[in-house]
Amino acid sequence: MRLFKQSNKLDNSKVQKLQDSWKEIKQVKESKSSDFRKVASSSVLVEPVENNPSFATDTIEEGIKYRVQAEPYWFQKIEIFPGYYSPGWSDPITEKLPFFGLPEDLSGLRVLDIGCAEGFFSFEAEKRGAREVIGIDSFSDSVRRFNIVKEARQSNATAFLTNVYELNPSKFGTFDLVLFYGVFYHLKHPQLALERIKSVCKGDLLFQTHICEEASIKDEPWAKYHPHGMLSGKNNELYDPTIFWLFNSACCIAMLEGVGFENISIVSDVPNPFVARASSPVREKSEPPDQTESPWC
Q1: pLDDT (tens place) for every residue of the chain, 297 residues total
Q2: E strand or H helix at 76, and its extent?
Q3: Is 188 exposed, middle or buried (0-12, 13-18, 19+ CB in 10 A)?
Q4: Which of 82, 101, 113, 153 is the most exposed place for a label (fewest CB within 10 A)?
Q5: What residues have CB less than 8 Å from 54, skipping those under 6 apart?
């Protein structure tokens, strides 16, 4: 009994230390939640953008520029039309494209871009010859911005407001290439997400996530959980309540292996972003959903 009590005391000490480490970010979350509750009854889910007073007389270029500038937030710096870029704080051309393993030739492939945001990789895949590009994102304002870029670029890529857990072949069909960039650490149920991705992937998966490595256990799969989210942005100026899991690279590979992906290899690693490539155990030509089966009804 004495040994049990002593062990329990040590465990409580560890629990308190962990809770202290989360204290600051928990206070940020509670403060932001409190601020929201004060105005919740008069708030909206999707922040509106201001109407363009000269909509009827603007040129197409002027109208698109107005819509870009009216958006309160852009994540990706993306070329809207030649020489004109969105004011995004993340530049995929320099920070991601050189490391993320996107093949130069995607001729004839169906490509799925999970967490497409404003669509940089969707439009890049289309430019590289994909026969169809489907993007999905959980945020309606991301899809709205995607559609601004789509219109300006006269693109055929399509963004759906949905999340990774809702992927299934009857709804979206199957894909030759799945891009799963910058989403994994935002998920409460990461293994379920990989299972849903596997159900629609009949070719290759490109997987990127933030990782957290500890030198002493670098080769052992492990993960760190953040119960209250994390600060993000270039200078940790943004609070993100959707960051839950940070895995080490070994754990990422183990989870891909665990759900059945094969031929797993590392494309990029520290000090660059962590990117892995994996292939479906069943490789078949991709197909869109059979619409005679009324997949959306």
Answers
A1: 455 455 555 577 777 777 777 888 889 899 999 999 999 999 999 888 999 999 999 999 999 999 999 999 999 999 999 999 999 999 999 999 999 999 999 999 999 999 999 999 999 999 999 999 999 999 999 999 999 999 999 999 999 999 999 999 999 999 999 999 999 999 999 999 999 999 999 999 999 999 999 888 888 999 999 999 988 777 777 888 999 999 999 999 999 999 999 999 999 998 899 999 999 999 999 999 998 887 777
A2: none
A3: exposed
A4: 82
A5: 62, 66
Identify whether 271 is preceded by a cis peptide bond (ω within 30 of 0). yes
At 138, which helix (H) or strand (E)? Answer: none
Measured from the Cβ of residue 196, the count of other Cβ atoms closer than 10 Å reads 19
72, two tokens? 């309160």
Q: Cα-flanking dihedrals φ and ψ of residue 58, to 5°?
A: -65, 150
Classify residue 271 as exposed, middle or buried by CB count within 10 Å of its CB (0-12, 13-18, 19+): exposed
CA angle in degrees (0–180, nearest 5) for 90-91-97: 120
Tokens representing 80 are 């809207």
Enter the DSSP assignment of 268: E
Q: Which stretches does DSSP call E strand in 117-259?
A: 132-137, 158-161, 175-181, 201-209, 223-225, 230-232, 238-240, 245-247
Task: Answer positive or negative: Cα dihedral of 137, 142, 144, 145.
Answer: negative
Both tokens assigned to 207? 């997987």
pTM above 0.85, yes or no: yes
Nearest to 66 by CA among 49, 52, 47: 52
The residues pairing with 59 across neighbouring beta strands, listed in sequence order, are: none
